[in-house]
C-alpha cells in the first residue's frame, strides 16, 4: 500500500478511495520600474539592500503612494483572465510577524480585490481542454528575502543564522487565486501544471512580468486536500509554498495526494499547515501551522485611498491588450500549416514559444524548430531540465542559425558553439572566437588539404574516374578531419570535383 521511503500510498489506490480538490495561488511580480508603494527601483539583481527606502524598510512616518502602472497592469491581468474589474477596491493591512517583512504587516487586498470571478482555459498534453475558474486577482507587495547560513541545504532547517535582504520588499505583486478545482481525479497534477504554464505564458505575453520562476518572479502555492469518494465535504488542506517550476508543481500535487492518503489510511488527521517542496526528490516537508484569515487581523489601510477604476479607463486598457497566447497559437498553427498533433507536440515539449521568439529574431520557423526540438531538446534531456531552462536564449539560437546560413559555421561547428553558450562561456560570437570555430575561408589551405586527401586515397580517385561519383564522401571526410571541421563544405566539394575532372 505504501512506499517504505516516504510512506506514500500507491497513486492508483489513492484514486480508488479519494477525490482530490486543489486550489492554486500564483504570485506574479510585476516588471514595473519602481516598487508598489515607493520610488525605489524594482529591478532584479542589485546588491543586497541596495533598492530600499523608508517605505520598504517600514521606518516610522514613511507613507506609501500607489504605483499607477501597477494598478493598470493588475487590471490588464484581470481582463485577460476574463475577470470582473471592480470600479472601487481597497488596500488592507495583513498583519503578521516575519523577519523579512519590516513593517510587520503586508499591504494587500482582502475583501475588495480589483479583479474577481474569471477563468482561464488550459490545454492538457493530450489536447483535452480544461477550464480553471479564478476566484480573484488582487494587488499586494512582496516581502523581502531571507538567506539562511550554516545549514547544508540553504534552508532554515539546520541554519545557524539568517541574513535579511529587503530589495524585494515592496515589489508589486499580483496574487491570482483559483476557485476549488474539483473533478480532475488522476489528472489533478497535470491540470495544475497546465494551468500554471498557461498563466505564465499569459502574463509574459501581456508584457507585465518576465514570469521567471527560477528567479522567483512567479511563485506557486498549491493547496491540496482529499475527500472520500462519493462525499461532498472538503478535506483538510495543506499548502505547499513557493514552488518554482512547472515540473515541481505537478510533482508537489501528486506527492501530497499520496502522502495525505497514507496518513488517512493510518487514521491520522491531516494538519492544516504550510509545507516546503524539496527539489531533490519531489517530496514535501512540514512547515508551520496554516493561519486563517482571522489570524491576519485584516483592516483597511488608513494611509492609502481606495483605488478607483472608471469603466472608460478599463475599456481603454482592454483595447490595448496584445494578441493573447491562445489566439496567437491558432494563427501560428495556420501559418505554419501544422496539424493538431504537431502543434500539441511542440507545446508539450515546451518548444512553441521558444520557436516563435526565435523567428521574431529573424530565423525561419523550420530552422528554429529544427534546433529547439532536436539538438537543444537533447541537451535539456541530458541536463534533466525543462527546455526553457537551458542557458541559451532565442536570440542566441537565431544568431547561430544566421552564422550557419552565412556559411561562417557548419552544423557541426554550430553545435560546438551552442555547447559553449550552454557552458556559460559567453555569447555566441564570443564562443565562436574563443574556440576558433569559424569556417576556414582560405581556399589555398583547403586546396592543400584536398590535394593531400586525394594523394592518400588513389583507390577512391580511380573509382570516381571509373564512374562511381558517390565515393567522394570519404575525401570530403578526410578534408574536414584535416581542417578540424572548419572547411567550407561547398568549397571542398567544388575543389574535389574540379581536381577529379
TrEMBL record:
Its EC number is 6.3.5.-. InterPro entries: Asn/Gln-tRNA_amidoTrfase_suB/E (IPR017959), Asn/Gln-tRNA_Trfase_suB/E_cat (IPR006075), Asn/Gln_amidotransferase (IPR018027), Asn/Gln_tRNA_amidoTrase-B-like (IPR003789), GatB (IPR004413), GatB_Yqey_C_2 (IPR023168), Gln-tRNA_amidoTrfase_suB_CS (IPR017958), Gln_synth/guanido_kin_cat_dom (IPR014746). SUPFAM superfamilies: GatB/YqeY motif, Glutamine synthetase/guanido kinase. Gene3D superfamilies: 1.10.10.410. Belongs to the GatB/GatE family. GatB subfamily. The keyword Metal-binding does not apply. Heterotrimer of A, B and C subunits. It comes from Corynebacterium poyangense. SMART domains: GatB_Yqey. Allows the formation of correctly charged Asn-tRNA(Asn) or Gln-tRNA(Gln) through the transamidation of misacylated Asp-tRNA(Asn) or Glu-tRNA(Gln) in organisms which lack either or both of asparaginyl-tRNA or glutaminyl-tRNA synthetases. The reaction takes place in the presence of glutamine and ATP through an activated phospho-Asp-tRNA(Asn) or phospho-Glu-tRNA(Gln). Residues 273-292 are annotated as: Disordered. Keywords: ATP-binding, Ligase, Nucleotide-binding, Protein biosynthesis, Transferase. It catalyses: L-aspartyl-tRNA(Asn) + L-glutamine + ATP + H2O = L-asparaginyl-tRNA(Asn) + L-glutamate + ADP + phosphate + 2 H(+); L-glutamyl-tRNA(Gln) + L-glutamine + ATP + H2O = L-glutaminyl-tRNA(Gln) + L-glutamate + ADP + phosphate + H(+). Pfam families: GatB_N, GatB_Yqey. This is Aspartyl/glutamyl-tRNA(Asn/Gln) amidotransferase subunit B. GO terms for biological process: glutaminyl-tRNAGln biosynthesis via transamidation; translation. Residues 353-500 form the Asn/Gln amidotransferase domain. GO terms for molecular function: ATP binding; glutaminyl-tRNA synthase (glutamine-hydrolyzing) activity; transferase activity.
Amino acid at each position: 500500500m505504501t512506499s517504505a521511503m516516504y510512506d506514500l500510498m500507491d497513486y492508483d489506490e489513492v484514486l480508488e478511495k479519494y477525490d482530490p480538490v486543489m486550489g492554486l495561488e500564483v504570485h506574479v511580480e510585476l516588471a514595473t520600474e519602481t516598487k508598489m508603494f515607493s520610488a525605489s527601483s524594482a529591478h532584479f539583481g542589485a546588491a543586497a539592500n541596495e533598492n530600499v527606502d523608508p517605505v520598504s524598510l517600514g521606518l516610522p512616518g514613511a507613507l506609501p503612494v500607489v504605483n499607477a502602472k501597477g494598478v493598470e497592469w493588475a487590471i490588464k491581468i484581470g481582463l485577460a483572465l476574463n475577470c470582473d474589474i471592480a470600479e472601487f477596491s481597497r488596500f488592507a493591512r495583513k498583519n503578521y510577524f516575519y523577519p523579512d517583512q519590516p513593517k510587520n504587516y503586508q499591504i494587500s487586498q482582502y475583501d475588495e480585490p480589483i479583479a474577481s470571478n474569471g477563468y482561464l482555459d488550459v490545454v492538457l498534453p493530450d489536447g483535452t481542454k480544461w477550464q480553471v475558474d479564478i476566484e480573484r486577482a488582487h494587488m499586494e507587495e512582496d516581502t523581502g528575502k531571507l538567506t539562511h547560513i550554516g545549514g547544508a541545504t540553504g534552508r532554515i532547517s539546520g541554519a545557524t543564522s539568517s541574513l535579511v535582504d529587503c530589495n524585494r520588499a515592496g515589489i508589486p505583486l499580483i496574487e491570482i487565486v483559483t476557485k476549488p478545482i474539483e473533478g480532475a481525479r488522476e489528472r489533478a497534477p497535470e491540470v495544475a501544471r497546465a494551468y500554471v504554464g498557461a498563466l505564465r505564458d499569459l502574463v509574459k505575453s501581456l508584457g507585465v512580468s518576465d514570469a521567471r520562476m527560477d528567479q522567483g518572479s512567479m511563485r506557486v502555492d498549491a493547496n491540496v486536500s482529499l475527500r472520500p469518494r462519493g462525499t461532498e465535504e472538503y478535506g483538510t488542506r495543506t499548502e505547499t509554498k513557493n514552488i518554482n517550476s512547472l515540473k515541481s508543481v505537478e510533482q508537489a500535487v501528486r506527492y501530497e495526494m499520496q502522502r495525505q492518503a497514507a496518513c488517512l489510511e493510518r487514521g491520522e488527521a491531516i494538519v492544516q499547515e504550510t509545507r516546503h517542496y524539496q527539489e531533490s526528490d519531489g517530496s514535501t516537508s512540514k512547515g508551520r501551522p496554516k493561519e486563517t484569515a482571522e489570524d491576519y487581523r485584516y483592516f483597511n489601510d488608513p494611509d492609502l485611498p481606495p483605488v478607483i477604476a472608471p469603466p472608460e479607463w478599463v475599456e481603454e486598457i482592454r483595447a490595448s491588450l496584445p494578441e493573447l497566447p491562445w489566439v496567437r497559437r491558432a494563427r501560428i498553427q495556420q501559418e505554419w500549416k501544422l496539424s493538431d498533433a504537431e502543434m500539441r507536440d511542440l507545446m508539450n515539449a515546451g518548444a512553441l514559444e521558444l520557436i516563435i521568439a526565435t523567428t521574431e529574431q529573424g530565423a525561419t520557423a523550420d530552422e528554429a524548430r529544427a534546433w529547439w526540438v532536436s539538438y537543444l531538446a537533447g541537451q535539456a534531456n541530458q541536463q534533466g531540465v525543462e527546455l526553457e531552462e537551458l542557458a541559451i536564449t532565442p536570440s542566441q539560437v537565431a544568431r547561430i542559425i544566421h552564422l550557419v546560413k552565412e556559411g561562417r559555421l557548419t552544423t557541426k561547428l554550430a553545435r560546438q558553439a551552442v555547447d559553449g553558450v550552454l557552458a556559460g562561456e559567453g555569447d555566441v560570437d564570443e564562443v565562436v572566437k574563443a574556440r576558433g570555430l569559424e569556417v576556414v575561408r582560405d581556399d589555398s589551405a583547403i586546396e592543400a588539404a584536398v590535394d593531400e586527401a586525394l594523394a592518400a586515397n588513389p583507390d577512391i580517385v580511380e573509382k570516381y574516374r571509373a564512374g562511381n561519383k558517390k565515393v567522394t564522401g570519404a575525401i570530403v571526410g578526410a578534408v574536414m578531419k584535416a581542417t578540424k571541421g572548419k572547411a567550407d563544405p561547398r568549397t571542398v566539394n567544388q575543389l574535389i570535383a574540379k581536381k577529379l575532372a
